[in-house]
Amino acid sequence: MVDTKFKRWLYVLLLIIFRVDGFYVDITYVENAVAKGAVCLDGSPPAYHFDKGFGAGINNWLIHIEGGGWCNNVTTCLARKDTRLGSSTKMVKQVAFSGILHNKATFNPDFYNWNRVKVRYCDGSSFTGDVEAVNPATNLHFRGARVWRAVIDDLLEKGMKSAQNALLSGCSAGGLTSILHCDDFSALLPTGTKVKCLSDAGYFVNAKDLTGTEHIQDIYNDVVTTHGSAKNLPVSCTSRLNPSSCFFPQYVAPNIRTPLFILNAAYDSWQIKNILAPGVADPHGVWHNCKLDVTECSTTQLDTMQGYRLGFLNAIKELESSSSVGLFINSCYAHCQSETQETWLRADSPVLDNITIAKAVGDWYNDRSLFKKIDCPYPCDKSCHNRVFDPNEHPGV
């Protein structure tokens, strides 16, 4: 009990420390998007936070997409509709910019003076949905693809049409967005703009759960069906496979023409909790403590997680030979490592071959070197910041 209380106290203290490393940016609503039907689940306008570039970065743009999972049917979408993940009216007016969004060279040497934008996520489909009809009984709007285009159009008008350099990045479901929309993003920018894409914790793999059920595949199939996503997924994939398969990066990424960087933990904490060991596959809660804290996992559970890692590595294998794809695959129990200063760039940040995530991504983007490293298996990496989750915040785990 003492250990658990200490961990919670330490986690709160660290959160306070990390916030000091960031600064707050006001929200911008894309009001004119409503007339185009480009709206959040509840019909409210899209939103983003924008900190202008300066100096040598004035014509460079970093677009970072917020994460937040998906809703795969009317019930789960209704549950999101009145939250920040379904309505811009429920979003906080300011968010902290740190890590890859920081405006100080000390914290973010390669992108600090760029125009930096955090796009809020309120459609539940990784910006792929587009259903014209709106059921008056639910008032749900499945318009993620329209939201995506409306936000990009707004930013083009605010100066991105003159971009010399651009990076589309995102975390979690936003990291998936940065893969699915990578080539589309490049096509919307002027010819001659240097465009690349970064996916942070967005490489969700098509794996079976503990019982052998294709749980995540079923969810993705429902997402694509509910949101009408098929027509907005990369044709290079949908021309070969069924649309729900094209929600998985492993079937999409190898055919993306725009340079791509995959930043992911091989033991991604979201994937372990929701793909490998979701509640439906663990009715007696045997995995409960393990999912909250990797140090609480039994030998058998760790063996199962090592198997998951091997499956993950197999899912990125096709990218290893690419001359334009960067890889930073560490063996941490974490999810999203670019948004917080703690993991992006700090004295004690995670490293591979003594290289931080910030340097690896910066070297890749600026063509200084093609970083492509895969970590040794857990628990060999002592630089990891393994997440410890509060059970009160994850009652379903």
From TrEMBL:
User: What's a single GO CC term here?
Assistant: plant-type cell wall
The record's InterPro entries line, in alphabetical order, gives:
PAE/NOTUM
Identify the EC number(s). 3.1.1.-
Q: Which UniProt keywords apply?
A: Cell wall, Cell wall biogenesis/degradation, Hydrolase, Secreted
Coiled-coil parts of chain: none
Provide the top EC class: hydrolase
Q: Where in the cell is it found?
A: Secreted, Cell wall
Biological process terms in GO annotation = cell wall organization
- State if Hydrolase is listed as a keyword: yes
Keyword Hydrolase appears in the UniProt entry:
yes
Q: Which family does it belong to?
A: Belongs to the pectinacetylesterase family.
Protein name per UniProt: Pectin acetylesterase
Q: Which organism is it from?
A: Aquilegia coerulea
